Amino acid sequence: MSAVVVDQSKNGGTPTSDDLARAAAIKRMERREGWKRRLPVLPALIYTILVTQIPFLFTLFYSLTDWRIDKVEPRQFIGVENYASLSGDKFFRDAAWISVQMTVMAVLLSLIVGTGLAILLDRKFFGQGFIRTLLITPFLVMPVVAGLMWKLQMFNSTFGIIGWVMNGLGFDSIEFATKYPLASVVVVLVWQWSPFMMLIVLAGLQGQDQSVLEAARVDGASSWGTFRQITLPQLRPFLELGTLLGAIYLIQVYDHIEVIVGGQPGAKNLPFYIAQRSIGGGNVFGLASAYSIVVVIASIIIANIGLRVLSNLLEDNS
């Protein structure tokens, strides 16, 4: 009810037909103004729906069929049979567990490293802008390029820097990516995503009220106490945002696994396994579509778990 009708009821009077007509006119005007504000973003919204939701709906439909491209028979609707077969697929369970490990380790480590870098950059020093640009650079490197660079220049037992350092310390060099495939992929992901976390946390640090920090220093609070009691609670939404975005993106990693370890069993996550079951030669597109739907659900679950864990940690420190 509009303000006219509310004012009438407050005065104990009954709204007249003119009052109701004016209220309806005001509502139509407010609705029209609302649509005018939404109009500029409407093309972007329509585009987003077309390129994300429609393919998702097709994937959901295909997951309910027995679609294979190596057979000439038409697709048949089989309901949830593809989903029912997931529990008996040992390779799927292994890939799911590797996805969880890889995502959790990469997100948490990159968040810790990014927070540390952001704290170091949140102060004035000579060459601050140049150092910040250098630290952001890994995030701008294409995943395939990053994977090749680390595989050939860092992990290679003959020419890699890690092998050279081990030889200098008196140890035999090893093929790091072959012996520790999961750790190798996680290291590269942390190297690439720490700058992203750093930018998010740095935005939170630079948005702090400096007068509050100055008052805490005047009152004799230590640097750690100020950070734990004042800075960390203010950084909570930024840390949660980094955790959410990191979990959503890192659970979909494919390029690094393909380039660095070539899909070894110790580092084969769900997206890589799905690719193998479909375009990688398996040709079971209906089953692969069901796997894809599970990955979407897993992304939401892991992101929510990460947010809950982070929220609990921040509440304990506040």
Count of DSSP-assigned helices: 15
Could you say what the CATH topology of the largest domain is called?
Answer: MetI-like fold
Q: Could you name the CATH homologous superfamily of the largest domain?
A: MetI-like
Overall helicity: over 70%
Query: What is the class of the largest domain in the CATH system?
Result: Mainly Alpha
In round numbers, the mean pLDDT is: 80
Distance between the termini: 43 Å
Number of domains: 2
Taken in chain order, the helices and strands follow as HHHHHHHHHHHHHHH
Radius of gyration: 27 Å
Structural class: mainly alpha
CATH architecture of the largest domain: Orthogonal Bundle
Please, what is the oligomeric state? single chain
Low-pLDDT segments: 1-11
Largest sheet entry: none
Count of DSSP E strands? 0
% residues in beta strands: under 5%
- Based on Cα principal axes, name the global outline: flat
Question: What would you say this structure looks like, in words?
Answer:
By secondary structure, the chain is mainly alpha-helical. It folds into two domains: 3-62, no CATH class; 84-317, MetI-like fold, CATH 1.10.3720. It is built from 15 helices and no strands. The protein has helices spanning 3-10, 17-38, 42-62, 81-84, 90-121, 128-140, 143-153, 161-168, 176-179, 181-206, 210-218, 223-250, 255-261, 270-277, 285-317. The protein is flat, with a radius of gyration of 27 Å. The two termini are 43 Å apart.
How is the secondary structure organized here?
Blueprint: H1 3-10, H2 17-38, H3 42-62, H4 81-84, H5 90-121, H6 128-140, H7 143-153, H8 161-168, H9 176-179, H10 181-206, H11 210-218, H12 223-250, H13 255-261, H14 270-277, H15 285-317
